[in-house]
């Protein structure tokens, strides 16, 4: 039986499954039925003569060969996006509102500055607040989220998973943890910094408590406040690795278990994709965030 070569149209289905971790969510992102996604992936598997996607109760998982195809798909996607940008979208103007939690402000504002340099007529407003802006009601066009939106008008694309770790200031380590190792049996004797009760259901916060954190000397709903409390030596905190790398004077502790990563989603209204300026900003954020989170 003659097999047909794999095309970009095939690869985009595999890329969607990789990003969204299920056939159903991939179909929603692509605007097709989950059964269509499954058929396209199965056709690729038959063509290549091997399984690419494995299903489980936790979603889908791609094997190593499939991940190589995903890298190729992302390169093609970026190349096609560049052609569009250089062709139809050289003149992008207007205002785009981007909703970010505080933890994403530091890495993404430089990207937005570069984007403005490409498109001087583009204006970006960043909404950073404890209350998440409602994209469906038009409070912002684009959002970066750590939870997938369940709202029908909103598209959520998995950008990647941000690694986390336990960090303390160099001063705290010198005073309390000279070896920079933190085992479960002594975690309860140390001071901790964490998010407040409104956010304690997050998997990362629950993990710190399961690891033994109990004595919280500082808690806040502000990521910036948590960062500064850790930097100031008030205790041990769970921070994103990329986030912590930009803060001076922090030491990553050697823990007996690996903290869970943070899933990061790009969210936007379905109808916003028709707007050139929103499409450009969303595409640039997605490309930059994937490089950071890979």
Task: Sketch the major β-sheet.
Answer: 5 strands, mixed
CATH superfamily of the largest domain: Periplasmic binding protein-like II
What order do the strands of the largest sheet run in, or round the barrel if closed? 4-3-5-14-6
Report, as a whole number of angstroms, the end-to-end distance.
37 Å
CATH hierarchy, class of the largest domain? Alpha Beta
Order of helices and strands: HHHEEHEHEEEEHEHEHEHEHEEEH
SS-derived structural category = alpha/beta
Rough outline: globular
Count of all domains: 3
Q: In DSSP terms, counting alpha (H) and pi (I) runs of 4 or more, how many helices? A: 11
User: What is the percent of helical residues?
Assistant: 40-55%
Q: Summarize model confidence as the mean pLDDT.
A: 83
Rg computed from alpha carbons, rounded to a whole number of angstroms: 21 Å
Low-confidence stretches: none
CATH topology of the largest domain: D-Maltodextrin-Binding Protein, domain 2
- Quick one: how many beta strands? 14
Beta fraction:
15-25%
What would you say the CATH architecture of the largest domain is?
A: 3-Layer(aba) Sandwich
